[in-house]
Amino acid sequence: MPPTSARRPTRRRTLLRRGRLLAVAGTLIAASAVLVPHGLAAPAPTSTTASAPAPAAPAAPDRFTHPGVLVSASQLDFVRGKVQAGAQPWKGAFDQMMASKYASASRTPKPRAVVECGSYSNPNYGCTDEREDAIAAYTNALAWYLTREDTYAKKAIELMDAWSAVIRDHTNSNAPLQTGWAGSVWPRAAEIIRYTYDGWSQADRFRTMLREVYLPEVVNGSHSNGNWELSMMEAAVGISVHLEDRAAYDKAVARFLNRVPAYVYLTSDGALPRTVPGSGLDTRDEIVKYWQGQSTFADGLTQETCRDLTHTGYGLSAVSHVAETSRIQGASLYPQVGERLRHGLGFQSTYEVGTPVPSWLCGGSLDLGLGPVTEVGFNALHHREGHAMTNTQKLTERQRPAGSNNLFVAWETLTHAENPN
């Protein structure tokens, strides 16, 4: 028998050695996508693809919390106290909301049986009317809760009843996105009215509308740009909460957790962004094309950053809304998506507040206009979790009071600024 020092390696030692070599190789691959300091030259891209399964999704709660879509009763009570005390920024945000067209007592709903929305809402047969009536219903529901004046609850009910009596379908190329936008807002209004106001006789008809007209259009997602599917999942999650549909909730959350890692890049993903399973993005060239031609990646870059920051804002807003709703429901998704949301907000905010765009990023030019979308994520990650978020804070405070983007974002300085609940 040979001496011990000359023995052949055991299978265990061989596997350990191979594991160490693979770990080193993985480190070298990941190093090509390290965080790029703003304004400095970026590392050269590699040709290695990177894809990984989404983080595990917590199951739907055994019992849903109501009201519980984007805002909870405790959050609204906090806001009500601040508004009554005349404290800022809440009082200014409340005044802004009440002065908007969405709070008008003379608003008349404009429902349609079929809402037809083409690309960029061309044609626009009921698209704007539907979205704005949904925002108006939510606006009046908030006004009811904060003032306890019946007239606002009745206006919210009038708007919701008008649409639930008429709408049957969404058609044309933008139907999934339109359904996602309007379907994200309707449940917010319905949650507040159904669970804090007595006298909504058609509440069940409204639930039927959500179940039959909206949920089937959004719950299966989309293979379009990321903001589409994220908005659709926001709608699916909110509708599922209102319907107390655990199966639909779980399905939407699982799809959401597949999409978020494919929308916001982190250096821990490797040399290239993750992809949605089944997307057909298998090569580096395909992924780079999908990321608007961007071939160098840094923490917080999104799939649509090089398209424009307005559409990027839609995606990040939907991420924050789903995470916030899940937190209210006791099954928080912030542990799964919070780091991507934090970096995504920070990366875009850096350039929104005036930092020069480096040459490696989108050819040295960005189409700005992130929109009023930072309050929810900033409150959760800065005020609740203690992250600094310097650029996000600067942009958030500069934009206060945050109004509405006339699509699915509304009054988030009022509802979420420094809200501890």
From TrEMBL:
The keyword DNA repair does not apply. One of its GO terms (molecular function) is lyase activity. It comes from the Bacteria. Keywords: Lyase, Signal. One of its GO terms (cellular component) is periplasmic space. Pfam families: Alginate_lyase. The keyword Ribonucleoprotein does not apply. Residues 133-274 form the Alginate lyase domain. This is Alginate lyase family protein. The lineage of its organism: Bacteria, Bacillati, Actinomycetota, Actinomycetes, Kitasatosporales.
